Amino acid sequence: MAEGKSKRFEATLTALRGVLIAAAALVAFFYPTQAVQLLVLVGGGLLLVDGVLGLATIDYAGPRDNNHWLVLARNLLSILAGLIVLGSGFLVSVFTLSFLTSLVGVLALLVGLIEMASSFFDSERQTRLWPTLVGGAVYAAFGLALMFVPLTSAATLIRIAMILMLFYALLLFYRAWRTRATG
Asked: Are the CB atoms for 177 and 36 separated by under 8 Å?
């Protein structure tokens, strides 16, 4: 009985992550000019919330195997990237905007790579391997876009981010549905 409640809670948090990411992507679609400014704030918040909700889904009573540490590192890196983005107004006086963008890009790339790697260690995730791999690839692609698309072409970056965010949200909805269905 407790296992079923735990699975429902995990599915609910995963679906909540999907709703937040889809909402941010739709705002970027309908308000592209304001989205550049809003994306900094919302994107940082999303990274922060994604990491916090990811930490909430970790089974801390479970074994401390490689997968546990990978998932923990993934969520902590997401939180760090979110804090850097949210604090960029203060950090710009110390670092250049290009450096901060590249740093967040590297962190997002690491989050994606860790998510893909952790899917091979977790036998429960292997039953839904492709959504986890694609979700990690979306995070990695977002990180690469931040690192290599110049800030001057912000409209292109917004379009890329919107598509990746919607795709990632759909994958989160699928993962929530699968978790709920098996729980």
From this structure: no
pLDDT digits (tens, 9 = 90+) for 47-64: 888 889 888 887 777 778
Token code pair at residue 47: 């990274």
Q: Is 66 helix (H, G, I), strand (E, B) or coil?
A: helix
DSSP assigned state of 151: G
62 burial class (0-12, 13-18, 19+ CB within 10 angstroms)? Answer: exposed
Copy the structure tokens of residue 97.
């905007």
Which candidate, 148, 152, 166, places its Cα nearest to that of 36?
152
Predicted local distance difference test score (pLDDT) of residue 40:
63
The per-residue b/e assignment along 116-138, b for 16 or more CB within 10 angstroms, e otherwise, is bebbeebeebeebeebbbbbbbb
